[in-house]
Amino acid sequence: MKLYSYYRSSASFRVRIALNLKGLPYEYLPVHLVRGGGEQMAPAYQAINPAGLVPALEDDGQLLSQSLAIIEYLEETHPSPALLPAKPADRAYVRAVALQVACEIHPLNNLRVLKYLKGTLGVSEEDKQAWYRHWVTSGFASLEKRLASDPHTGKLVYGDQPTIADLCLIPQVWNARRFDIALDAYPTIARIDEYAMTLEAFRKAEPAAQPDAE
Amino acid sequence: MKLYSYYRSSASFRVRIALNLKGLPYEYLPVHLVRGGGEQMAPAYQAINPAGLVPALEDDGQLLSQSLAIIEYLEETHPSPALLPAKPADRAYVRAVALQVACEIHPLNNLRVLKYLKGTLGVSEEDKQAWYRHWVTSGFASLEKRLASDPHTGKLVYGDQPTIADLCLIPQVWNARRFDIALDAYPTIARIDEYAMTLEAFRKAEPAAQPDAE
Questions:
Q1: Is the peptide bond preceding residue B81 cis, with omega within 30 degrees of 0?
Q2: By the 8 A CB rule, do A64 and A78 touch?
Q3: Which of A134, A136, B51, B156: CA 20 to 30 A from B120?
Q4: Contact B53, B41 (CB under 8 A)
């Protein structure tokens, strides 16, 4: 398998964790999202993935895009260890936590969105940072309430074994730290993050551990 | 089953199509997202769904949230008719198209985001409309390129039978029309939408056909 990735892309980070947890070796192909206006927009990468986004996974001659679609694919083709529980209602719970990060927080703080705010709308650097913090803190507040009270919560989001919910949550926590957002108000999230980062699959997927880290 | 829904919420629209396609009867419980600052923030609804979002589906005493998690749950518990193809790579393709709408377009044009732009950042009505159009048109341009050239494309996104990709795409087209975005530049998307809206399951899920439509 080949993974088109950018070290700091949290959607790439999710897929790297999944590949590590399932013990699947892969070739790492860096796509620099900032240099020269973004290598993802260059013809070379557009020919591979016309959507111009990372991550993308090449497997068996097929190019797969969208991190959660890639992770579900890995789950179906390499079911062990499972990243989703067995019962439909439990699977729905884990997917909902993953989507709460992937649809409610992450898209608002993407590079292209921050660029539009600053470049097109002329928002100040301070207001841009406040925007970033707003969506992380309101999203984390809602998640914290859920995780603190839900009986499924263990050392990780769903019991003690990693699920796709952790794959989305941990990279988002990494982003929050990068933007100096304190986690004091989200003790359950902070505790889950601390435990996850003791696991090799998560540590090896961290931005700083990637070949293109700066 | 009980569906907490708002007629104009496109995430609710997705789940309504899924329920209709699978022939599952449900009780419609309206949650007005605008009236009185939004009924989804009121204690009565927060007690049901602390995330304060619609849709939410109650089934078998469980409350499920996040439209795509709900749809995957319906697919697992009521597999026929299938809303995903059989092969993992094809399933990944359909999920990727669905996520391209659900993660790249829709979250940026949510009510709460438009409110923040106008209320907190003081963006003009004109710039807010331009923001809305920007994410729809750039997202549709990318999707059009994909759908126009992909051999999977049929009368619908994947062949001629509805999949979760159509469940995400059609409500997004409805939103685009509501904001007077012309579809001329996206002939494949327009054609898929036209065909989908000849199907009863889609028509019955339309905002105008809901009991809380205004």
A1: yes
A2: no
A3: B51
A4: no
Nearest CA in chain B to A108: B108
| A92 token code pair | 């729905």
Q: Sort out which chain B residues have CB atoms less than 8 A from A99's CB and list them.
A: 66, 68-69, 102
Residue A68 is predicted with a pLDDT of: 98
Residue type, B144: E
Tens-digit pLDDT profile for chain B (214 aa)? 999 999 999 999 999 999 999 999 999 999 988 887 788 888 888 888 877 889 999 999 999 999 999 999 999 999 999 999 999 999 999 999 999 999 999 999 988 899 999 999 999 999 999 999 999 999 999 999 999 999 999 999 999 999 999 999 999 999 999 999 999 999 999 999 999 999 999 999 999 999 999 9
> Taking CB atoms and an 8 Å limit, are B51 and A100 in contact across chains?
yes
Percent of chain A past pLDDT 70, that is, above it, reads: 100
Residue among A46, A55, A6, A2 at smallest CA distance from A210 = A6
Confidence of residue A48 (pLDDT cuts 50, 70, 90): confident
User: Angle CA(B189)–CA(B54)–CA(A104) in degrees, nearest 5?
Assistant: 70
Quick check: A91 and B113 CB within 8 A?
A: no
Q: Which residue among B98, B100, B134 sits closest to A51, beta carbon to beta carbon?
A: B100
In sequence order, the 6+-apart residues with CB closer than 8 A to the CB of A86 are none
Question: Coil, strand, or helix at residue B3?
Answer: strand
Most B CBs within 10 Å, among A45, A60, A121, to test the B interface: A121
**DSSP codes of every residue in A123-166:** --HHHHHHHHHHHHHHHHHHHHHHHHH-TTBSSSSSBTS--HHH
The per-residue pLDDT for B55 is 97
Establish if A1 touches chain B: CB-CB under 8 angstroms. Answer: no
- Domains defined along chain A, listed by start: 2-81 (3.40.30.10), 88-201 (1.20.1050.10)
Cβ of residue B93 closer than 8 Å to a chain A Cβ? yes
Q: How far does A33 lie from chain B, in Å, by closest CA? A: 16
A51 touching B (Cβ < 8 Å)? yes
What is the token pair recorded at A81?
A: 């260890």
Please tell me the distance from the alpha carbon of residue A101 to that of residue A89, in angstroms, as a whole number: 19
CB-based contact (8 Å) between A72 and chain B?
Answer: yes
What CA–CA distance (Å, rounded) separates B88 from A164? 17
Q: What is the dihedral angle through the alpha carbons of B38, B42, B44, B48, rounded to the nearest 10 degrees?
A: 80
User: At which residue do the structure tokens 């909902």 appear?
Assistant: A96
